[in-house]
């Protein structure tokens, strides 16, 4: 993908998901929940999941966050429903790897490839990863 199209995809993805975030303040039963804070940017996000039989049935988030973190949380909530717990944890690992590399890794999550453009701004990578880290924390550590 060319530098221009990567930048366009990044910008368009962040703007689209920040304007109308999927799963923001969703009203659903919750079995797993975790909150994280990014002290550098000031982001605070709580991810709430409904999991049954190792499958994500609902996902939402709340909190105060920058456009990158909000877009990332929206992508997570849009894409997680119907996936297995292990697929969600793997998605976090894959995004983390993609943001830390210079390669053209293609992610198996709708719109998540648009977040890869944030790797050009190292101080903002944590903003993109925070909701995914919260979901993994919720799944592996915190159940209600």
Q: Structural class of the secondary structure composition?
A: alpha+beta
Please give the CATH architecture: Alpha-Beta Complex
Low-confidence stretches: none
List how many beta strands DSSP finds.
3
What is the domain total for the residues?
1
**Could you name the CATH class?**
Alpha Beta
Strand content: 15-25%
Order of helices and strands: HEEEHHH
- Calculate Rg over CA atoms: 14 Å
Cα separation of the termini: 42 Å
- Major sheet details: 3 strands, antiparallel
Strand order in space, largest sheet: 1-2-3
Shape: globular
Helix content: 40-55%
Q: Note the total helix count.
A: 4
Q: Examine the coordinates and then state which fold CATH places here, giving the name of the CATH topology.
A: Sufe protein. Chain: A
Averaged pLDDT, please?
A: 90
Question: Can you offer a commentary on this structure?
Answer:
The chain is α+β, with helices and mostly antiparallel strands and 144 residues long. The protein has a single domain, classed as Sufe protein. Chain: A, CATH 3.90.1010. The chain is built from four helices and three strands, in the order αβββααα. It is globular and about 35 Å long. 42% of the residues are buried.
Question: Concise description?
Answer:
By secondary structure, the chain is α+β, with helices and mostly antiparallel strands. It has four helices and three strands; from the N terminus they run αβββααα.
Spell out the key features of this protein:
alpha+beta, 144 residues, three-stranded antiparallel sheet, 3 strands, globular, Sufe protein. Chain: A
């Amino acid at each position: 993908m060319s530098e221009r199209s990567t930048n366009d995809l990044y910008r368009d993805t962040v703007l689209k998901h920040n304007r109308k975030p999927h799963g923001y303040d969703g009203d659903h039963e919750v079995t797993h929940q975790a909150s994280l804070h990014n002290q550098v940017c000031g982001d605070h996000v709580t991810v709430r999941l409904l999991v049954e039989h190792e499958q994500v049935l609902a996902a939402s988030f709340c909190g105060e966050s920058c456009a990158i973190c909000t877009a990332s949380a929206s992508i997570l909530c849009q894409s997680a429903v119907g996936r297995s717990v292990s697929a969600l944890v793997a998605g976090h690992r894959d995004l983390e790897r993609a943001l830390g590399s210079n390669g053209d890794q293609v992610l198996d999550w709708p719109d998540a490839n648009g977040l890869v453009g944030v790797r050009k701004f190292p101080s903002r990578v944590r903003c993109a990863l925070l909701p995914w880290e919260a979901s993994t924390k919720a799944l592996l550590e915190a159940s209600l």
